Backbone:
């Protein structure tokens, strides 16, 4: 009679694939780069004059360090487009990318607090987000065509907020383990059309592909 022994050890290949190789891949994609996406304006600027811009914040060795760095800078309110106050910068979104421009984390800024977005959990969810964001950008394009720059900017920001969940698959598991707040994960955004000027309310809109292009040296 033969006895069956429970498997208590995994093969070397399983260990390499599950632990060693992912860690090596993460190490090769560091340091992580932290930037802030927002809108630049000046005194007397209209919505048509406002410009979306990415401001570098710094580098970090891990997603946790990147979150801490971003939280400190946002809380202090010292993210500026220029050393002086010639141009005003309204921060809207924090983006953390690896050295290959892959998205690691992103979070919306509200009242001096960063609401980190939950990464997508499946390919189907990622596809739905891409479709929803594309529709919002189409509406933004139409709003720009009729001269409604405030509405266009708000719609572009809603699209960018959705795309902030499109974390690179390499980092998706780590981002999910951070247990980001569910409040930072709006699943069904409702488009709004603000009438206030950009000095009072500005929205940022940029696709994930545009984020990658902006961050490349």
Residues:
């Amino acid at each position: 009679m033969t006895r069956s022994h429970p498997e208590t050890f995994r093969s070397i290949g399983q260990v390499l694939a599950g632990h060693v190789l992912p860690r090596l891949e993460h190490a090769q994609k560091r340091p992580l780069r932290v930037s802030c996406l927002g809108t630049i304006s000046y005194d007397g600027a209209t919505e048509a004059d406002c410009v979306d811009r990415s401001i570098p914040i710094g580098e970090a060795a891990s997603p946790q360090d990147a979150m801490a760095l971003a939280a400190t800078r946002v809380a202090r309110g010292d993210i500026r487009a220029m050393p002086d106050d010639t141009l005003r910068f309204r921060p809207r979104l924090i983006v953390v990318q690896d050295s290959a421009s892959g998205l690691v984390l992103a979070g919306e800024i509200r009242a001096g607090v960063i609401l980190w977005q939950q990464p997508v959990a499946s390919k189907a969810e990622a596809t739905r987000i891409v479709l929803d964001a594309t529709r919002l950008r189409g509406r933004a394009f139409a709003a720009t065509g009729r001269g409604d720059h405030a509405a266009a900017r708000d719609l572009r920001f809603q699209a960018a907020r959705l795309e902030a969940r499109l974390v690179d698959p390499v980092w998706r598991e780590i981002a999910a383990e951070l247990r980001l707040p569910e409040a930072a994960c709006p699943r069904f955004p409702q488009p709004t059309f603000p009438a206030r000027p950009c000095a009072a309310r500005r929205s940022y809109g940029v696709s994930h592909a545009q984020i990658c292009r902006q961050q490349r040296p």
